[in-house]
Task: structure prediction
Amino acid sequence: MIFQKSISRVFKLTAIAGLALGMNSTFAEVNTTGLAVTDDTVTVGILHSVTGTMAISETGSVQAEKLAIKQINEMGGVLGRQIEYIQEDGASDWPTFAEKSKKLLVNDKVAAVFGCWTSASRKAVLPVFEQYNGMLYYPTFYEGLEQSPNVIYTGQEATQQILAGIDWVAKEKDAKTFYLLGSDYIWPRTSNKIARKHIEKLGLKVVGEEYYPLGHTQFNSVINKIKLKKPDVIYAIVVGGSNVAFYKQLKAAGIDLTDDKYTLLTISVTEDEILGIGGENIEGAYAAMKYFQSLDNPNNKSFVEAFKEEYGEDIVIGDVTQAAYLGPWLWKAAVEKAGSFDIDKVRAASPGIELTTAPEGYVKVHENHHLWSKTRIGLAKRDGQYDVIYETEGLMEPDPFPKGYQ
Amino acid sequence: MFSDYSSTELISIFAMQGFAGLILFSVFVLMALGLAIIFGQMGVINMAHGEFMILGAYVTFLISNLFADFMPAIFSIYFFIAMIVAFFVCGAVGAFVEWSIIRHLYRRPLDTLLATWGLSLILQQLYRTVFGAREVGVTIPDWMMGSIPLTDIIEIPLNGVFVMCLTLIITLAVYFLMFKSRFGGQVRAVVQNRPMAGAVGINTEKVDRITFALGCGIAGIAGSAFTMIGSTGPTSGQLYIVDTFLVVVFGGAASLLGTIASAFTISQAQSTMEFFLSGSMSKVLTLLTVVIILMIRPQGLFALKLRK
Result:
């Protein structure tokens, strides 16, 4: 009796286990860590500011990420699962970003998060992503000096934006002297530090370096200084509302950028910012970016078309918007290569991922989680678009900890 | 630092720098006048002042689009019409705010601070919902964006001249209104002794409403003018609010003359220091000086003598 009973128990257990295995074999393989994945859906998070001061900049990124998710779903989703997203608002407040990212990772168990814009918000969520092992796709060009196993940086780090731009202006415009100008926080300061080292390496001269508080609206004094020093190149990294004030006052003070006498190179003005500045005020300035809306390639044509169809004919697409669009696609490619949604497997699969359909052209994920990408120079036009007048021959290698530039 | 430059260059730069200081002075007066009227005459701390300025800027934006679409022939003068409309729109909204919120809080000045701060958040989100989170570009007529070249280096920015003239006109208008007109007499009577003013037949509630509307209307004009030199977005008002309060408090809250004197001092100090030091450092020094002076003289530069 006793013997029989235990045999039947063993049999029952095996049967249940077998049943469980049979039913869930695909499920268990693609998701061993309890992420929000079902047989036909997978949930991801979108975490940007849609209220507060940063909403100006982050709106484009949200739109791009939603478009990418929609397109992926139309193509059949990821590993046969439709992507659903939970959107949270960081509200331009860094502790809120940390809180919301914890909510996305711990409560919602999302498989990936597309989000953050400022470095401050990224630094705030970083410990959360590392503690709860999440995956963040971060779209903004930024100062570098970071490399987290839990982040894929789809924007350029500083050297990818700066070095080629300065090389170009030194060669094409025969520039000898530079005036560095920026808003007073980490990104402009770090970027100008790299710019200065590079300028000095080329044997050229920095004749002035200035920082103004975020939100500064009066630039007449610095414009006078620039007039006095007569630099060949004004190298400007002004951001936010200050940007608008700076370019309007520059023009009003008689520094006409369409004139050959003045060259201005910026790394902080995309098509998005020109909306506020006004094309007539920045016409003739040069910008170093990896993407411009006017890029002439088939990928970009269909991207711009889809974007306009979704958000209206008047919408503009800046560098960061395109980088945000890459996030979901890179994640999809990594998941499919890994054959699993598990964060560790996606991370291991990420380096070497290639995207031939990127609007900016071809991109590839580096070992250091940044992207190989080209640097391009655009000339600002009156209608608020850029003419792409130069691009680096090959892809620039991402180098978040550049030796000799720190 | 001057050894590398010729004397003509130096003279030109000092001229330009003086002019830059004057422009900054005009900008400060223009943004502080509306607040000074409300704060000084009514004792209401209007934290939504910046948002009223941006309302004026958005009105300008709408009118510029209207002209560009329907009356391109007279686009070059739309700006004057926009400023007048901005004045009345902001004034009307101001009167409504006074009627719905402020008048219930006159005896509680700290609560007006909280209420108007709440109002500023509501307005910001309203702008964001209506106009979108991105900044809008206000197209300024070409003739207002250029500069007059006097010499090689000295160039007079036209928008600066425009702001200076505007400030002068509005300051004079406010002066006559406050000190020469019957309405001004009523306002000053209410400030000095509210029950007494009521007793002699002044409708104090009406005076309050018009004063508040006037302050908001002037903020609207300022916002409209600042589309020439700054950005127009849902939160752009925040860029001005700190400087505005600084000017008003430093000048002595109840005195228009004090506001002008303080705007002059702060603008000259800041623009001179910005030339010799870096931008952030000059801001730090300006704020530090103001703090020290206010510690010694809490009532500000000029104070109205009142029998309490």
Observations:
- Residues 10-25 of chain A have pLDDT under 50 and may be disordered.
- DSSP finds 13 helices and 15 strands in chain A.
- The first strand of chain A starts at residue 41 and ends at 48.
